[in-house]
UniProtKB/TrEMBL annotation:
Transmembrane segments: none annotated. Pfam families: Radical_SAM. This is Radical SAM core domain-containing protein. InterPro entries: Aldolase_TIM, rSAM, rSAM_sf. SUPFAM superfamilies: Radical SAM enzymes. Keywords: Iron, Iron-sulfur, Metal-binding, S-adenosyl-L-methionine. The keyword Nucleus does not apply.
Amino acid sequence: MTAQQIGLKDRLWKELALKAELNTDGAAISREALAFIAPGVKTQEQVHTLFEMDFEIHDDELPAYFRLDHGLVVPFRWNPDARHRIVLDGNRTIVVKDDEQLAEAHFPARPAYYGQKTSDGAAMATIGSLGSDRQFFVAYSNECSYKDKGEDCLFCNINFTKDTYGEKSGIFWKTAKQIGETYAEVHRQGLVDHVNITGGVIPERRELEYYLDVADAIRKHSGVEDFNGTAVVAAPIDLRNLDRFREAGYRTVGLNLEFWDKGIYNAICPGKARDSGGWDHWLRAIEYSVGVFGHGNVRSNFVAGTEPKKSLLAGIQHLADKGAVGTASIWCPNPGSDLEGHRAPEPQWYLDLGHRIAAIWKKAGFTWANLYDSNASVDTLQHDIWRIEAETLPIFQRDAVAAE
């Protein structure tokens, strides 16, 4: 490894530490900076179609994400009380903490299709949002059947988000045709390599039929046979239904177990614990899915920060041993959830977790294609760590060209 490569990695590790702080603590933004970047006009705005991930609800149009100086992507989580602030400095937006300038924040341009509509007049931006790495994210509904039973997951605010922002923010049931038309336009514009379809928990038969219809609509409107789709679903009671998702054209599947510790799972996810066969059946469904979709093509996410790290890592390791990719999202005590007002662990806790997960992935033999295809986003700390260690982030290529 050259001195230049060592220096770049050192800078990336520092940038990753800043990203961890911005993820766990959020960031405020000045009125001047917000007006300058003009989310929803010049730059890409948040789309509330699943969860409110900011620390407080808001009326302002806020940005979706930004890049730091070396390219690491930070999801924007608005926290008006955060020590980190994004301020305007001439024609640059700067991340500051206690008036110390830390980095420049680079906000992405608004995708062209965000200003377009489907044939029935729905704003395409509300049908599917665009991730930072060519990933098309569709939340078909905020309908979750656990609400009616009073059994929502305690960390989740999917129903609260719908009640708060409603249809004016694009929270409505998306039809298969709307998704197919929007995907076709995103594909025509050359913006997409992966599709993630998700939503609240709905009855099994209805979920299966809907996902089959969506796959048909994507192929019909785009002409793309292999659209590299991930179906994020509840564990079906009849595990053979997982074969049908594969037959419909989905390349990967996501079954989010949320917690490895059964006691915590039962307490925080009462609906999942009582329906869909409970924790043990969800695990069987994950293992069955590996046999259907193949090694590395099944994902299960954990809400990191509400159970001990040792337990969470035991779950990630178990899944890796079975050929499934375990991921961990940084817990945001979402407004409107039963855990609102709690705190996520310190940034260093998440950095250590990310290093340990990346090591498990490497030992399990997962490829970058596995980690990319099976996930809704590759903006996590563990994905960054993987790419820094493997020297595959775009900055490494640019740095190498500049050195020639």
